[in-house]
Amino acid sequence: MRWFFLIMVFLLSLASVHAVSFSYDITAFGVDTQITEKEIVEEQCTSVENATNCINNTKKMQDIKNISWSSTKTIQIDCQYTCLYDVPEFIHPSTVEISNYSISAQDSDEYGIQFKESKQKFTSSSKDKVSVKIKIICSENSCDKNCMVCPDKSCHQPDYQCPESTQFFSLERVDPTVLKRGTNTITILLRNLRLQEVTGVSGEISGTGLKTIESTTISSIPSGERDTLVITIDAQESGKTTAVLKLKVDNVIVNFIQTFTVESDKKEEIPSAEKGNVTKVSEQFEKKKEELRTLQADYLQKKSDGYLLGDVSDTFKKAQDYADKIQLAIVDGKVSDAEKQLILFTSAIEDVKSYLQNAQKKSLGDKLKDNALLISAVVGALVAVIGLVEKQKGKVDALKDKIINRKDTKNEDKKDVTSEKKDHEKSTDKKTKNDYSEKIDKKEKADKKKEKEGDTEKKHIEKKE
If 235 and its partner were Cys, which of 114, 262, 336, 368 is the partner (CB 3.0–4.6 Å)? Predict the structure, then answer.
């Protein structure tokens, strides 16, 4: 078991190290000055008394050539975070003078490389250093050792400045701020400003002449709620001092600055029994708050399951009021008031517990009663629809009767026309017969037009039905 533990520690230590292995090329550039000597023979002639004398003179001349020179070396390194390397030595002829150096490496998101002094990838000094910086990973998925971790557990680059502590917590009261030499019990009322619950909250006060003896631990503080932390310190030096209040929240340190004054003259100290009562009440209060949170979760579950819960929500509100009064009493050092409110708080919790234990599921009648308004609305809508249908039906029947009456009138008119035709045929007056025939033709055309309009209206009514 011991070996297994040591192996796990070793593996975890390796996992926390973000090292990168890679190679880079460094090239030296210079000029190779090559000098070659040549002998040149020159003939010099002189004339003396019509005679010419010639002498050969030998001269030496230098031929100077500057040839570009370079040499490259490949360097293999294994770097973690920040590393510095010397510029390597290059073997070169004595005629070569090195003027500058350059670095060549593949681009990577994991590291950056350059010369330290020139802050570029080339330099003219052989005493410059090759600087390698490994780009550490600071993200939600991977947070390297040198990353900046803020109180909200967010991970950032090392140069990131976390928001002020007051954006995460609010110190609503620190009491007392005037201390006596010796042991002092300081009560801190703080509120959680974060959007999520925090757990494992403890504290420590440090400053000139101040030393923390012990601190209570708050198991959890829901978002937006407040709670009380009690820290016992030893004040060794009198006078005014600025201290640092460290809140350890989820293994992250949140710092606040607080000023205390330590009195020099000795006054009557608070009895140790009274200090013990403050701690005892605080511990009892923490247990009851945890019990209340459990009951709240049970209440929500039973509410969703359809239980009859009555006015239990009002009892929850009373319990929360008692809790606020207890916290204020503890901060003010009023132990007796805190104990009284704790009794009421405990009674309210017992009432809630009794309500939830005796709660029964809603019957069919209760569910119908709860839905009475919905049922009434549905019935009212049905009645309105039926009335509308009846009203439309009455209009349709009236239109049908009207069409039937028109048809009967038309048939009678046809009979009258036929009778008149027969009487007319018996007439011997040709002029009267022609006039009457014209009259009958007009009347037949008018009847056909009415019949056509009646058929059209009938089709419209049948379509509407």
Answer: 262
- Measured CA distances, 239 to 184, 186, 209 (Å): 15, 17, 9
Question: Residue 105 above 60 pLDDT?
Answer: yes
Q: Are 249 and 196 in contact (CB under 8 A)?
A: no
The model's pTM is 0.35
pLDDT digits (tens, 9 = 90+) for 110-144: 788 999 999 999 999 999 999 998 877 788 777 87
Other Cβ atoms less than 10 A from the Cβ of 231: the count is 21
Burial class of residue 429 (count of CB atoms within 10 Å of its CB; 0-12, 13-18, 19+)? exposed
Measured between its terminal Cα atoms, the distance across the chain in Å is: 89
**Under 8 Å between Cβ of 286 and 279:** no
Nearest residue to 146 via CA among 20, 253, 16, 255 = 16
**3 Cβ neighbours under 8 A, 6+ residues apart:** none
Q: Which of 266, 231, 227 is nearest to 245 (CA)?
A: 231
Pick 439 or 227 by higher pLDDT: 227
- Picking from 433, 440, 397, the residue whose alpha carbon sits closest to that of residue 418 is 440
Q: What is the DSSP string of 157-206?
A: -TTPPPPPGGGTEEEEEEE-SEEESEEEEEEEEEEE-SSS-EEEEEEEEE
Contacts of 276 by beta carbon, 8 Å cutoff, 6+ apart: none
Amino acid letter at 11? Answer: L
Angle at 88 between CA 25 and CA 27, to 5 degrees: 35
Residue 141, number of CB atoms within 10 A of its CB: 6
- Residue 149 φ then ψ, to 5°: -105, 120
CB of 127 closer than 8 Å to CB of 87: yes
Contact 188, 222 (CB under 8 A): no
CA gap 143, 310 in Å, rounded? 50
378 burial via Cβ count (<10 Å: 0-12, 13-18, 19+): exposed
User: CA-CA distance, 255 to 265, in Å (whole number)?
Assistant: 30
The C-alpha R_g of the chain, in whole angstroms, comes to 53
Inter-residue contact 96 to 41 (CB < 8 Å): no
User: How are beta strands 178-180 and 252-263 bridged, if at all?
Assistant: parallel
